[in-house]
Design brief:
single chain, about 160 residues, mainly alpha, 7 helices
Length: about 160
């Protein structure tokens, strides 16, 4: 049942990305490129998509998810909510957000729409996913290397 719900949720999410235009890099770049405001070519329609998503999720999170997670109650099909444990704004978060934003601004695509666009077998989508997987691998490798250095020499 859990896998079926995950599949249905993923299909619903993908359909929403396609319907809203968030899977179309040209539409996303039309929104992100605010220099187009002056020429009248800026496309603010994605602001409605993001605003409507936030207007639904924010009350649900504040009134349902957060209180239940605090009481250690999980969602219907899991034993716990998987929320971020780190609430500090640190260098790792800022760097990751900057890299994410840079990639999104350059290509007009982020991980969710990239997965949806894989179905098209578009070479750009395939290259993006390969680069994303490589980036995740390198990020974990760097994180492990830093953690080893911070822990100091191994005592025998």
């Amino acid at each position: 049942m859990r896998n079926l719900m995950a599949l249905l949720s993923g299909l619903l999410f993908g359909a929403g990305l396609l319907l809203s235009g968030l899977a179309d890099p040209a539409k996303v770049l039309g929104f992100l490129d605010i220099s187009r405001v002056v020429s009248g070519e800026w496309d603010p329609s994605l602001m409605l998509v993001m605003g409507s998503a936030l207007s639904i999720y924010l009350p649900v999170y504040l009134l349902w998810v957060k209180p239940r997670a605090a009481r250690k109650q999980g969602p219907v099909l899991d034993s716990q909510y998987h929320l971020p444990g780190n609430t500090r704004i640190d260098g790792q978060l800022v760097l990751g957000a900057a890299l994410f934003g840079l990639g999104w601004g350059m290509l007009g695509i982020c991980p969710g729409p990239a997965v949806v666009n894989l179905a098209s077998l578009d070479p750009m989508a395939l290259a993006f996913m390969a680069a994303m997987v490589l980036g995740v691998y390198l990020g974990r490798l760097i994180k492990r290397t830093i953690a080893r250095r911070e822990s100091g020499p191994i005592q025998i």
